[in-house]
Amino acid sequence: MLAFSDFLVGIGLLFVIEGLLLAGVPGWVRNTMENVTRTPDHVLRLVGLISAVGGLILIWFIRR
User: Fold this and answer.
1) Which of 21, 32, 46, 64 has the fewest Cβ atoms within 10 angstroms?
2) Of residues 15, 37, 17, 13, the one with CA closest to residue 25
3) How far apart are the first and last CA of the chain?
4) Are 29 and 21 in contact, with CB atoms under 8 Å apart?
């Protein structure tokens, strides 16, 4: 049950960060989203993979 509540806390933090960005700098977020739509799929996949691995490493260090 602890893992699921940690997951929900993570989702909650994601919503908080996204909400703060949209409320604080909506123009920057819009421009960034437009740039993402023009970015090739292979670049997005690489960035996503690097981000996922980085997140797992961070979690591993915190939980260690």
Assistant:
1) 64
2) 17
3) 19
4) yes
